[in-house]
Amino acid sequence: MGEQDTSIKTTKDVRDRLRTLASERGTTMNELLMELVSRELTDEEKEQRAQQALEEVRQTTGVTVSDDARARARAFLQNVGREHHAA
Fold it and tell me: Among candidates 52, 5, 61, which has minimal Cα distance to 28?
């Protein structure tokens, strides 16, 4: 391997589940973990994507989204998320 290996402490149940999932997918636990963590964005990555999307909107439509509109949209989406998880 090109990168240095390291260890992660977890419970036996989590380890066993990772092993089972990896086996079912025909992959290693390391590759499974890489796949899973690659799906999640950091806060910085989310902000970068939001800025890219806003710039694309500006370039495509000529409209600059205000900070107020962006805050209202974020609040709306957070409410939708809360309602979804509560259901």
Answer: 5
Please report the pLDDT score of residue 13 as a whole number. 98
**pLDDT value for 28:** 96
CB 18 within 8 A of CB 33: yes
pLDDT(32) > 90: yes
Q: Which residues contact 35 (CB under 8 A, 6 or more apart)?
A: 27
CA distance 55 to 67: 13
| Residue 71 token pair | 């805050």
Is the pLDDT assigned to residue 1 strictly greater than 80? Answer: no
Distance CA 29, CA 38 (A): 14
